[in-house]
Amino acid sequence: MAPAVPAAVGGLARCAHLASAQGESQQLAAASNFGKRHERDASGAAIPSKPALIVLHETVLDLPSTIALFQRNQADDAAQSSYHVLIGRDGERVRIVPDQSRAFGAGDSAFGDLRFKTSATNPPSINNISLHVSLESPPDGRGDAEAHAGYTPAQYRALAEQVLHWQALYGIPMERVTTHAAVDRSHSRYDPRSFRWDLFDQAYAELRRSCA
After folding, report:
1. Which tens digits make up the pLDDT trace of 148-172?
2. Buried-most residue among 25, 139, 146, 156 (CB within 10 A)?
3. pTM for this structure?
4. CA 102-169-199 angle, 5° bins
């Protein structure tokens, strides 16, 4: 039986205005790089399709290069990738994939027992119930080093706004805000490197007090 979608998070309805579409620039991905949220898996069994997880990433590339990558049509399944939202070093939010669509943010992935095989040829993943947001990496994070200079205060604030906005819209509890490193099952993803949960928590708490 498909896992139930979590109940709405209480007290956050007034946070829905945070990270609204009016504050986003639109740079939508090529059609090859995202898809619909499936209501049935590859075997025909019913699966949840409402967003129920928020997954944090980093770009590795700079923001313009990341946007260009996602806007490039990819015929090869292995090269298709996207996030719902990018957050630049200055806190700019860029919409890549609409919430109602499935971004290709985490290929071979699971959150606890949650993972769904929606393709006969690709591994199971959490993409069907996930919202993916990615922070632009700093200049010294454009390679594969284990750590880098980290993220800016503007990025932590914009990320907190985005998380609160999604929580208010979809009832996603903080226990279901996670990282790509935590959900990856390919043992090849470690992002977002140098992420400071304490700085995110501080920005989140300040915003939550202001709106809820």
Report:
1. 999 999 999 999 999 999 999 999 9
2. 156
3. 0.93
4. 90
Tokens at residue 77, please?
Answer: 């399944």
Q: Are 40 and 84 in contact (CB under 8 A)?
A: no
Domains of the chain: 13-33+45-211 (3.40.80.10)
Each residue's pLDDT tens digit, 89-140: 999 999 999 999 999 999 999 999 999 999 999 999 999 999 999 999 999 9
Structure tokens belonging to residue 111: 């959150």
Query: Is the separation of the CB atoms in 91 and 155 below 8 Å?
Result: yes
Instruction: Note the residue count of the chain.
Output: 212
Show Cβ contacts of residue 150 under 8 Å, excluding neighbours closer than 6 positions: 138, 194, 195, 196
